[in-house]
Each structure stands twice: as C-alpha cells, then as structure tokens.
Design goal:
Layout: H1 3-17, H2 23-35, H3 37-48, H4 50-54, H5 62-104, H6 110-146
Bound molecules: zinc ion.
C-alpha cells in the first residue's frame, strides 16, 4: 500500500463511486481496496453520505416538482374556467337579453313573467353556489400549496 497508489485511488474514488470508471480501472481500484483499510474507509464514508462526495448538481427537493405539477394543473384549470366563463357569458347574455325584452313587454301575462323569472333565478342561484364552491376549493388549494 504505497502512498502514491493510495493518492491515485483516492482521486479516482469519487468517479468509482459514481460508476464512471473503465472496467480496468474498476478492477484495479477494487484490488487496492481489498488490501487498504484507509481507502476502504473512505469509500464507506461516501456510501454513508453520498451527497457530500458526489459533487453533482443537487437534485431539486421533491416538493419542487410537486409544486410545478400543481402550478401547471392550476394554469390549465384557469384557462378552462376562462373559456367556460366566456361561453356562459355569451349564452346567458343573449338569452338573458331576449328574456328581458319579453319580460318588459307590457301585455305579457304574469304567469309567463313568472315562467321567465323562476328559471333565471334558479340559474343565478346555481351560478352563485358554483362560484362560492370554486372560491372555497381555490382557498384550500392555496393552503395545500403553502405546505410545500
Ligand atoms: Zn489505499
């Protein structure tokens, strides 16, 4: 176990640990390791705390990926919500305007007016309930995001 040999092995140990040495070098290092307790201990230390020795770009913490996935999902949801909102606004706008014109026509019987007002009120109620629910979901989603 001459000193020079140990120096070379220790220089190569990180590459060996990462599996980046040629088969010949690997064999030579393994042969040296069987006879050298110092280098064996160094390799053991690497196995215990690989992050210190690998010298690689640190892998992003797991929360990072999750956050990106969540953000992408949320963007998709916003785009869909905007599309649905535009369609609903158009349909409700046109229909609402037509119904309103019928509603304000002087000689329409009150039963017809009630027939218009009731479904419009029902739609408004449902829309308001959906908006409230969506707000609640979004708030919970943001609370979840805060955990990462
Ligand atoms: Zn050695």
């Amino acid at each position: 176990m001459n000193q020079l040999h140990c120096d070379i092995v220790q220089d190569l140990l990180v590459a060996y640990f990462d599996g980046e040495v040629s088969p010949g070098t690997r064999l030579a290092i393994e042969k040296h390791l069987t006879g050298c307790a110092t280098c064996r201990q160094l390799l053991k230390d690497m196995e215990v705390s690989p992050m210190v020795f690998q010298g690689l770009a640190p892998t992003p913490p797991p929360g990072d990926r999750e956050r990106r996935v969540l953000a992408a999902a949320r963007r998709r949801l916003y785009v869909m919500a905007l599309g649905i909102f535009l369609i609903a606004a158009g349909v409700l706008g046109f229909t609402g305007w037509g119904l309103y014109q019928l509603f304000i026509t002087p000689d329409v019987p009150w039963l017809v007016r009630l027939g218009i007002a009731a479904p419009v009120g029902g739609v408004l109620l449902i829309v308001m309930a959906l908006i409230a629910e969506r707000r609640q979901d979004r708030k919970e989603e943001e609370d979840d995001l805060g955990k990462y």
